[in-house]
Amino acid sequence: MSAPVQQLVESMFAGVQALDIERATAGMADDIVLFDPHYPYPDMVGIVAVREGLTWAFTQMASMRFDVDRWFFGADGTSAVVETSTHHVLKMGSKRLDFPQVFVIDTRTEASGERRITKMRAYEPYGPHGSTGFGLKIGHAVYRLTHRRR
Fold first, then answer.
1. Where in the chain are the domains?
2. 112: which DSSP letter?
3. Domain 3-146, CATH
4. Which of 53, 78, 140, 146 has its CA 20 to 30 A from that of 22?
């Protein structure tokens, strides 16, 4: 039952890795909700917003790659969690970005009988940015200085 969801997600990743908007979004529902904190507007609601987000991403990246480490499938076959080792290269300065990432994905079968991605949420193993992130870094440093691990 999980094969169609896995194929859908693999096709989406292949489109992103090819930096191809059409391929990347071919399996997404028109009313998809996608959240990814890497994007200028992390909450993307609807296929138009997702396409705009990906267009921005593709202008920033020389390459994007997701190596799937593990899959977890919902019992009903409509959802998956994918753990990836993510490898991107920025166009500016050719900086490599290597980090683990998890995607939580929901799908549904449309009236046409085709399964589509309806919700996708990206999780990264690092905290918030900006002033909140700066404050946390200071707090963490103070804690580490006053509470050494043994």
1. 3-146
2. T
3. 3.10.450.50
4. 78
Element (H, E) at 99: strand 96-109
Q: What's this model's pTM, rounded to 2 decimal places? A: 0.83
Place of tokens 């753990």: 83
Q: pLDDT tens, position by position, for the chain (150 residues)?
A: 456 999 999 999 999 999 999 999 999 999 999 999 888 889 999 999 999 999 999 999 999 999 999 999 999 999 999 999 999 999 988 888 899 999 999 999 999 999 999 999 999 887 666 676 677 678 778 888 888 877
Q: HSE, CB side, 13 Å, CA atoms: give it for residue 137.
A: 9
